[in-house]
Write a structure and sequence with these properties.
- The protein has a single domain (10-76), classed as Glutaredoxin (3-Layer(aba) Sandwich), CATH 3.40.30.10.
- Helix content is 34%, strand content 20%.
- The protein is built from 3 helices and 4 strands.
- The protein has helices at 18-22, 25-38, 76-88, and strands at 10-15, 45-50, 62-65, 69-71.
- The chain has a 4-stranded mixed beta sheet, with helices on one face.
- The protein is globular, with a radius of gyration of 13 Å.
- The termini are far apart.
- The relative contact order is 0.23.
């Protein structure tokens, strides 16, 4: 029998489909990973890069779970605010 794996409390899904990637999706995933590491949240919060979410007109797109918050037209400043709102100070804690 294999060992179980850690399930994070919160997950940030970042679209890295072609349009989202061109508009900074991959960089935003990297930013979140750095923030998670700096804040000592590794293992509690995970970043998952996804393929296309079929929301290309709103690129870059991401989702923060378990809040089920879907965010669009993201940039670094909006991403940091979303992290604060949905990861650090989530209403579902």
């Amino acid at each position: 029998m294999s060992k179980g794996f850690n399930i994070p409390e919160k997950v940030i899904y970042v679209c890295t489909g072609s349009k989202c990637k061109k508009k900074g999706g991959k960089d935003l995933a990297k930013l979140f990973r750095e923030m998670i590491k700096e804040m000592g949240l590794k293992g509690k919060v995970e970043v998952v890069k996804t393929d296309c979410t079929d929301r290309c007109d709103y690129a870059p797109v991401m989702s923060m779970q378990p809040d089920n918050a879907w965010l669009n037209y993201m940039n670094e400043a909006k991403a940091k605010q979303a992290f604060n709102d949905h990861i650090l100070h989530s209403s579902k804690d």
